[in-house]
């Protein structure tokens, strides 16, 4: 496939990259919020999904939206992955450095290159592969720099790798589902199904379920409002941005998380982490410029 051709399942929209950027910022802040909630990881995932289900289910009902059974079936695979991801992600972020989790989970483009080519017919060039390799090098520097941080944990990093695989699957499946389901309807179904997935482990672990106190509810609400809005923005963008670009954009969240973790969680920043963050941002900038050039060439070709 040549770089001048559009990819399947992508209807380019000028606000697509803006939505993706907004999602990345929301998730960068969200990584910090998780550490503030005095709840076990699985219990936090459950109550966060309960509140999200109520909010987005209520929005769809208020708009008199209609969700059909074929649409639910289209959402199911992604929603199941989402529920499993929340368990692994929250466990990891409470077990190791927030910066490490953010960096590992952001490696989604490495996992999704194959999906971008085979499932969505997206253009993947040697230049893109070189940019991904550069971003990997930057990520390795960040991980190396944080190995001496007291809150680092090998188990936590392992859980973050599991979260990476689950989130990668969720992104690819969500992009497919969004061709059949509206963004708000997708959100409502995804949260409800994910809540069902998380319920059994939430009941069976951590002493079972008990209602959070008022302070915990405020933090849970913040998670729904901030990183939850990131999910909405990304799910909307799935229909308008190539998955090779939207996944690569996730690499922008860790540098933001690293700075916020230093400010709010007293996680020290090492020189290697700063260098790695700069390399990642440079690679991300290259990917975005490449996407804009491809889109401009295609637009000129059909204009």
Low-confidence stretches: 1-6
SS element count, helices: 13
- Succession of helices and strands: HHHHHHHHHHHHH
Radius of gyration: 19 Å
Percent helix, as a range, is: over 70%
Strand content: under 5%
Sheet/helix structural class: mainly alpha
The protein's oligomeric status is: single chain
Quote the distance from N terminus to C terminus.
20 Å
User: Kindly state the mean pLDDT as a whole number?
Assistant: 82
Main sheet overview = none
Q: Looking at the structure, what is the overall shape?
A: globular
- Count the E strands: 0
Short description:
The protein has 303 residues and is mainly α. The protein is built from 13 helices and no strands. Helix content is 75%, strand content 0%.
Topology diagram in text:
Elements: H1 16-36, H2 41-62, H3 69-93, H4 98-105, H5 108-118, H6 126-146, H7 154-177, H8 183-204, H9 214-225, H10 227-237, H11 243-249, H12 253-264, H13 271-302
Description:
The protein is built from 13 helices and no strands. With 303 residues, it is an all-alpha fold. Helix 6 runs antiparallel to helix 13. The chain is globular, with a radius of gyration of 19 Å. The model is unreliable at 1-6 (pLDDT under 50).
Q: How would you describe this structure in keywords?
A:
75% helix, single chain, mainly alpha, 303 residues
């Amino acid at each position: 496939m040549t770089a001048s051709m559009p990819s399947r399942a992508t209807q380019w929209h000028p606000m697509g990259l803006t939505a993706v950027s907004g999602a990345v910022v929301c998730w960068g802040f969200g990584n910090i919020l998780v550490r503030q909630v005095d709840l076990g990881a699985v219990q936090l995932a459950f109550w966060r999904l309960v509140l999200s289900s109520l909010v987005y289910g209520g929005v769809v009902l208020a708009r008199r939206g209609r969700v059909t059974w074929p649409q639910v079936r289209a959402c199911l695979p992604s929603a199941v992955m989402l529920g499993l991801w929340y368990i692994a992600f929250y466990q990891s972020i409470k077990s190791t450095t927030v910066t490490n989790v953010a960096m590992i989970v952001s490696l989604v483009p490495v996992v999704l290159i194959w999906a971008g080519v085979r499932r969505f017919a997206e253009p993947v060039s040697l230049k893109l592969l070189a940019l991904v390799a550069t971003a990997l090098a930057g990520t390795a520097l960040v991980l190396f720099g944080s190995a001496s941080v007291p809150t680092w944990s090998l188990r936590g990093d392992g859980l973050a790798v599991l979260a990476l695989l689950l989130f990668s699957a969720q992104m690819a499946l969500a992009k497919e589902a969004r061709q059949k389901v509206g963004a708000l309807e997708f959100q409502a179904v995804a949260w409800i199904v994910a809540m069902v997935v998380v319920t059994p482990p939430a009941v069976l672990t951590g002493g079972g379920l008990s209602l959070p106190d008022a302070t915990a509810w405020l933090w849970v609400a913040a998670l729904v409002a901030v990183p939850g809005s990131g999910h909405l923005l990304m799910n909307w963008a799935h229909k308008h941005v190539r998955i090779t670009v939207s996944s690569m954009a996730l690499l922008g969240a860790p540098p933001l998380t690293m700075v916020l973790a230093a400010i709010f969680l007293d996680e020290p920043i090492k020189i290697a982490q700063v260098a790695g963050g700069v390399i990642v941002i440079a690679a991300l900038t290259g990917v975005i410029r490449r996407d804009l050039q491809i889109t401009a060439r295609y637009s000129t070709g059909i204009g």
